[in-house]
Amino acid sequence: MLAMNYRGPFRVRAEDKPVPEIQHPQDAILQVTRACICGSDLHLYHGMVPDTRVGTTFGHEFIGVVQEVGHSVRNLKIGDRVLVPFNIACGQCVFCKQGLYSCCHESNAMSTAIGGVFGYSHIAGGFDGGQAEYVRVPYANIGPTVIPEGIDEEDALMLTDVLPTGYQAAEMGGIKIGDTVVVFGAGPIGITAARCAWLFGAGRVIVIDHLEYRLEFARKYASCEAYNFKSMDDPVLFLKRITDFLGADVCIDAVGSDACGNMMQTITGKKLKLQAGSATALHWAINAVKKGGIVSIVGVYGPTDNLVPIGNVVNKGVTIRAGQTSVKRLLPKLIEHVQNRVLRPKDIITHRFALEDVAEAYHIFSAKLDECIKPVLIPHPVH
Amino acid sequence: MEEELKERYQHIIGWGIDANPLNEPTYPIKDEGVEKGEVSWERPEKQKVEVEVLYSNERPGLPAVVGETFPPQFISGRLRRYAFKYSESRYRHWLPLLIADRINELEGVVGDITKGRLPTVLAKREWKARWQHERKSLVRNVLIGALAGMVIFKLVKYRQP
Lengths: 383, 161
Prior knowledge:
Oligomer: heterodimer
Organism (chain A): Sphingobacterium haloxyli
Largest sheet of chain A: 7 strands, mixed
Strand content of chain B: under 5%
Largest interface: A-B, 81 and 80 residues
CATH architecture of the largest domain in chain A: Alpha-Beta Complex
Order of helices and strands of chain B: HHHHH
Distance between the termini of chain A: 12 Å
Domain Alcohol dehydrogenase-like N-terminal (chain A): 25-143
Protein name (chain A): Glutathione-dependent formaldehyde dehydrogenase
Keywords (chain A): Metal-binding, Oxidoreductase, Zinc
Radius of gyration of chain A: 20 Å
Structural class of chain A: alpha/beta
Cofactor (chain A): Zn(2+)
CATH topology of the largest domain in chain A: Quinone Oxidoreductase, Chain A, domain 1
Shape of chain A: globular
Number of helices of chain A: 12
CATH class of the largest domain in chain A: Alpha Beta
Structural class of chain B: mainly alpha
Distance between the termini of chain B: 89 Å
Helix content of chain A: 25-40%
């Protein structure tokens, strides 16, 4: 089968690999029909996540058709069209029972800090991802969800990660009616978080980024204010000035380790890799939030350390809430919102590539060319 | 204020429909049904593991399901085995893994060559995207490369007796 193949930082290709097989009674094999490249995949592509082994197939956002199931799979049958949450979760451990499906303790051998994730390095379990014609899906009774009638295929694709993550970012912000919410990052997650902030009753939503085309998209898609930090001397001071010098009630970091905007963070975090990525967005979020406010983090960072003003967290009484998205917990509500046309997640898809053009797709997304916001890979039609 | 905001944002579909005054910092952990002190669970059936799988020493053994892709091998594999002797809290865990990744890249290049395949480091596949969207920098880089090549060629030729 054709699959994306990682060869090292900034080097990927499409290549033939063996079709995956059932390895556990709760496994299913899916024929992938659509797979996204996620902004988090770029952290892998840029070589920022340790234990990313050469040959790995990335891709944790995908939908497909069930081709084969293990003998313990009861909830799926061959031919079902399913969307697959990016978390690999057993549904039985103490963390899954609490709804923390991203922290499953039965799906990742290599790290205790995170549960298994499809195609996200060996520190997330060493599973191949869905940027391929076929993919192995463990715990098929728990994660994969049959795509309800009436839900568009690409809306379903956005329900595997982008929409739940943007929604959880807003949810973790604990937004109260009338709150001012600042979202750092106008990528797919930031734009979605800004849109979802309104569902919680935000009074004002502000997005900060440095790419004008993305800010323009955010203004239209999320009906929010959007500002370019490159046009300001100091983004934190700018945000204080436009919030009565108090700061925002809620700040959301939807950028993570690839942030730009601070030379010291860029050099130590991205170039020299002396910290787990550049924490510029988180730094700004902590300093721009109101005293007693909430910082919600969904941006992905590496597993070591980052330079952030933790003293200000203490002095300002800031609450930090963070987490990889618990997709399964949020799916029922979000499917309803998509069915009712409250949310239209597929509207953020800007590019579609054949799987064989995966290197082009990664380059265009990574270099922010052609006003790319969200690229989707379409595997070769089989037979 | 809520009514005033509802009026102001009536053009935003779904404004306020998920407002939840009970959403507080420990949500959703506090909401879910786990008995106090519950630390064990009925484990799923274990996968029959057929390759070497490294696992964190912060856990007693393998989880029920594991990824068996790319088991540790060669020099990078030895480094990875060393790394997994230490907990996720130690630099002795993460730094060897980072070094192993870079060595693994070179192993990948050697692997490509031994299989008779042009390594991706030479056969970069995004020429089309660069030509369409970054033509100036592509042309500049090609010219610089050609110029550097010519200079090296001349120097080598000049030094030959």
